[in-house]
Amino acid sequence: MAGILDVPKPRINCSMLSQHINRAVCFVGRVEKVHPTGKTFSVSDGEGNNATVELNEPLEEELSGIVEVIGMVSNKGAIMATTYDVLREDKGTPFDLELYNEAVKLIHDFPQHYPFEVAASG
Amino acid sequence: MWNQGGYSETVMAGGYTQSPGGFASPSLSQGGEKKGRTRASQIVPCTVSQLMSASQADEAFRVGEVEVSQVTIVGIIRSTDKSMTNIQYKVDDMTGAPMDVKQWVDTEDPSVDNTVLPPGTYVKVSGNLRSFQNHRSVVAFSVRPLEDMNEITSHMLEVVQAHMVLSKPQTTSGAGGGMTSSSIPPMSRPTMGSMGGMGGSYAGGSGMANNGLSPNQNQVLCLIRSCPEPQGISIQDLKQRLSGISLAVIKQAVEFLSNEGHIFSTIDEDHYKSTDNDD
Question: Is B50 in Cβ contact with A117 (below 8 Å)?
């Protein structure tokens, strides 16, 4: 697990999955359906597209709301999750997933101002 | 200049409370210097990758063109380590390996909250970038847990906006980066003469051209220069070609250019030729 946390994990949405196959990514989305086995669930992004998340261990509790999943993108475009966090929405303001999606598109439009890599420091 | 103005307005709306003095007046934050060079008296939203890649000259760090000293980052705590005098966090914002963040603990002051935040907490860190024996870290004066996760989104947007605006004005106009200094001399644009519509975006660009003429004056001069006819181009023709500029402004430009010796009248007061023509 330490390995994937120490590399850049570009924030992406569903339309960018195919460009990140076999790479580490960070995917934020709304939990849609949890498979009965608890080992996989679907998430939707701010554009309404769905992706599949696959876990190593089955979920131990009910998962809902907005999650941030870190994992590798498989050849089939699923996210093999290493870890995930629930973005809490209990303190008042709900998370605006559509706006987050716009921000994701923006940072990919301006990689010079939001780099997902560490250049050699001078 | 308008770049700095735009930045301070937007950042005020973004709710920076740390350094109000720096944002209230752009001249303060520039330290009185005229050009776009920024002094390190502002707090700049950054990514961990930017902080790790920043170049260092003496005590000053630079992310590209932007000098950074006080920074904010938003990320999730991956690990914590508390000692008697400080708390060390590793904060991950997905742009690279988690960043070391050190927060000093004030053991004497009971009002200061020294509770260690647990891993998995999303935080906004405000502090100073430091480098010690080639190891980069942030010494934080504030590590605040996020209550509204939309701050993750707003930080992403603020990072791009701040670095875009704080970069040298000649290279980025903040409005898409399409205007560069190389596009200013009108002679180099073959389409200038035929496209009156270009006037709008051009005039909104970087202000003064290299030859000391305003964008409007440059457009008028360029059209006059490009006219091959012996009697020159008329003011009516200029008005037709420069649909974005009013007749009064065109006449003002013509008068200025004529006074400066760039153009002269030919058959009447309404026709002008450029003094730089080869023929």
Answer: no
Helix axes B247-260, B215-225, angle to 10 degrees: 70
- The answer to whether residues B126 and B70 touch, using CB atoms and an 8 Å cutoff, is yes
CB contact under 8 A, A110 and B160: yes
pTM of the predicted structure, to 2 decimals: 0.63
Give strand pairing partners of A21: A73
- Alpha carbon distance B205, B2 (integer Å): 10
Please state the ipTM of this predicted complex.
Answer: 0.94
pLDDT tens digits, B202-255: 333 344 556 778 888 888 888 888 888 888 899 988 888 888 888 888 998 999
Residue A11 burial (CB < 10 Å; 0-12/13-18/19+)? buried
Residues of chain A found within 8 Å of residue B120, distances taken between Cβ atoms? 85
pLDDT tens-place string over residues B168-180 = 664 444 444 434 3
CATH of B44-166, one of 1.10.150.20, 3.50.50.60, 2.40.50.140, 3.30.450.40: 2.40.50.140
